[in-house]
Amino acid sequence: MRSFKMLLTVGPDNHTGFRKHLEELSHLVDKGEFIPVKEKYSKKTIQRIIQKKPSLTIIGGRNWIKRNHKILSRIPGKKGVLYTSPLAQAEISNEEIKNLQIYFQWLDSKKIDYLFFSSKSLASLFNRKDVFYLPAPSTKEIKYSREIKKIPKQNIVGLINDKAVHKNILNTIAGISLSRKTEKFIVNGLPAEYFDLLKRFGLKRITKDAGFLEDREYKNTLKSIKLLLYLSFSESFCYSVFEAMILGTPVLVSRAIDWVETKELIINNPRDHKEIAKKLDYILSLNKKEYLILSERCKKNALKIMGKNNLISTKVIESLL
């Protein structure tokens, strides 16, 4: 990974996987930096970008660059936009389809040099030399894989995500309500109407709302639960699943998260409440030895996808620097 040209990545100053993707990309080369965007408009950020004299700038494809697209001509070196939504997720959100159209217009008019996709299947649909697959990398979490998972004394189930429309929250809660083994249910905030249904499903007594979780508290929560649920209708990578699994916490997932290899953790129909409850209770019923074996399999799976994604993204970036 020897590179002496400057890579800049630019994205939102928040706690999302989108920001993490951009920040982690900057760690793949010797001379890389992530610039978090804290303002709506461009003056401060564009000044920082110009001062760095980047050879390549990768900008997160969201509202900030749409509002500030005029700055693209002022950014030195090559530049590209990172688009992280697969087609299904883009269609659900609607706005992301419009964004995709805008970014291709920029690419066609040479306003940007490259368009990067975190979805391999979406990138493969476009037969263009300026379109690249750039999967989600990770450079920080490997240390956690050395920790042995401490099995919680209670059967604690977690639903921890950003509550986006494609996350399938209500079907997940309905599945948990049919579980016979769940003793405690942790969420990180829900809309009031969701909490109302949660109560009507009979989960009020065992539910804890942890609210917004800072990084350390977030990691400690992932460690404390026995099983995380992430049954999205669509995902590109999902750092939350990766972060839980590298800590040794099993995650029940939909097939939208296609890099998870453990069959016991895959829900075929994320709308089927009975299937969710059945697999949930199966994991919660494992004895200590069985659970620890599953925990180690989760770690290995996370390390495998991390190595694969890091290698692909590093090769792409170094070929463009």
Describe the structure.
With 321 residues, the protein is an alpha/beta fold. The protein has 2 domains: 7-134, 3-Layer(aba) Sandwich (Rossmann fold); 141-304, 3-Layer(aba) Sandwich (Rossmann fold). It is built from 12 helices and 12 strands. The protein has helices at residues 17-25, 43-52, 63-67, 87-93, 95-108, 120-123, 169-177, 192-200, 215-224, 239-246, 273-284, 288-320, and strands at 7-12, 32-37, 56-60, 78-83, 114-117, 131-133, 156-159, 184-187, 207-209, 227-230, 251-254, 266-267. The strands form 2 sheets. The protein has a 6-stranded parallel β-sheet, sandwiched between helices. Helix 10 links the parallel strand 10 and strand 11. It is globular, with a radius of gyration of 21 Å. The mean pLDDT is 93.
- Number of E-type strands: 12
Strand content: 15-25%
Give the helix proportion (percent range): 40-55%
What number is the mean pLDDT? 93
CATH hierarchy class name of the largest domain: Alpha Beta
The structure class reads alpha/beta
Q: Describe the global form.
A: globular
| Rg on CA atoms, Å | 21 Å
Q: Do you know the CATH architecture of the largest domain? A: 3-Layer(aba) Sandwich
Report the total helices: 12
The CATH superfamily of the largest domain appears as: Glycogen Phosphorylase B
The biggest sheet amounts to:
6 strands, parallel
Distance between the termini: 12 Å
